[in-house]
Amino acid sequence: MVLGRRSTFRVPVASRVHWSLRGSRSQTLSTTKDWSRGGLFIRTTQPRSPGEVLSILMELGGGTVRIEGTVVHRCHDGMGVRLDITGARVV
């Protein structure tokens, strides 16, 4: 866990995720780098633009969770995604 001046934390987690733009049938397989209070960081060579909404399938434990998220920042090794947990469901 990394604590910063603004009391943020990051937990390193390398989970597999399948993600796509909301409504698209094309999926990309990536891994997460870490979780934080703001959401998660997805490693990818194809980061989407801030404001784009993603549909995410994430493997957690013995199941898969479907959740939507909004890209909040991008960089050369991936993108930060704020998750909307109100619509999350196990599939």
CATH superfamily: predicted glycosyltransferase like domains
CATH class value:
Mainly Beta
Total number of helices: 0
The arrangement of helices and strands along the chain is: EEEEEEE
Structural class: mainly beta
Shape: globular
Strand arrangement in the largest pleated sheet: 2-3-4-7-6-5
Which structural traits does this protein have?
91 residues; six-stranded antiparallel β-barrel; single chain; mainly beta; Thrombin, subunit H
Please give the structural blueprint.
Elements: E1 10-12, E2 16-21, E3 28-36, E4 39-43, E5 53-60, E6 63-75, E7 78-90
Describe this structure in words.
This protein is an all-beta fold. It has one domain (11-90): Beta Barrel (Thrombin, subunit H). Helix content is 0%, strand content 63%. It has no helices and seven strands. It has a six-stranded antiparallel barrel with strand order 2-3-4-7-6-5.
What is this structure, in a nutshell?
The protein has no helices and seven strands. It is mainly beta and 91 residues long. It has one domain (11-90): predicted glycosyltransferase like domains (Thrombin, subunit H).
